[in-house]
């Protein structure tokens, strides 16, 4: 009888820890956001880690015969249409995440792709950092592009929602 009680308690504990646990999953609507004109195609797609959105894949296609510049110092993370900081990416130290960043040159007819993470959601040390997930709501990027002396500022965003899985 004592064995059966222990087995039953172990069974209940196992179900409560593993069998019925809910996880939070982030969804995006639309799946990605884009803008296109005669000069460029620009899009952002939310990226997920552990089923929660933590960053974006940014794609910028230069549709002209001139070099364009993506100005990282005037490109911002947007949360509910408010600027919440800049981005951290592969060649930026965690300690310098809010410092000046080198502008990116996109040659004529070239396509530029970069994975970017909101620096306000990063935590860690110099070479090791982790990214916290974005909250539900409007999340996006305000991008500044310079082409032939003209400045273009584009806002792209998506609606993130949380589902229990």
Please describe what this structure looks like:
The protein is mainly beta and 165 residues long. It has a single domain, classed as Sandwich (Immunoglobulin-like), CATH 2.60.40. Helices cover 11% and strands 52% of the residues. The protein is built from 1 helix and 14 strands, in the order αββββββββββββββ. The chain has one helix at residues 2-19, and strands spanning 24-29, 33-36, 40-49, 52-62, 68-70, 76-79, 82-83, 87-88, 104-106, 111-118, 122-124, 129-131, 137-147, 150-164. The strands form 3 sheets. Strands 1, 5, 6, 7, 9, 13 and 14 form a 7-stranded antiparallel sheet that branches. Strands 2-3-4-10-8 form a 5-stranded antiparallel sheet, with no helix packed on it. Strands 11-12 form a two-stranded antiparallel sheet. β2 and β3 form a beta hairpin. The model is unreliable at 5-22 (pLDDT under 50).
């Amino acid at each position: 009888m004592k064995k059966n009680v222990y087995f039953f308690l172990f069974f209940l504990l196992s179900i409560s820890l593993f069998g019925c646990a809910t996880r939070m999953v982030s969804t995006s609507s639309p799946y990605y956001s884009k803008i296109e004109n005669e000069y460029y195609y620009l899009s952002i797609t939310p990226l997920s880690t552990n089923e929660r959105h933590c960053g974006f894949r940014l794609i910028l296609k230069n549709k002209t015969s001139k070099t364009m510049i993506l100005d990282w110092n005037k490109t911002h993370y947007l949360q509910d249409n408010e600027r919440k900081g800049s981005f951290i990416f592969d060649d930026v130290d965690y300690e310098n995440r809010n410092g000046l960043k080198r502008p990116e040159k996109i040659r004529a007819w070239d396509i530029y792709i970069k994975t970017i993470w909101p620096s306000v959601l990063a935590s860690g040390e110099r070479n090791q950092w982790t990214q916290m997930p974005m909250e539900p709501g409007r999340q996006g990027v305000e991008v500044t592009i310079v082409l032939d002396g003209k400045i273009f500022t584009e806002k792209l965003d998506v609606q993130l929602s949380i589902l229990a899985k």
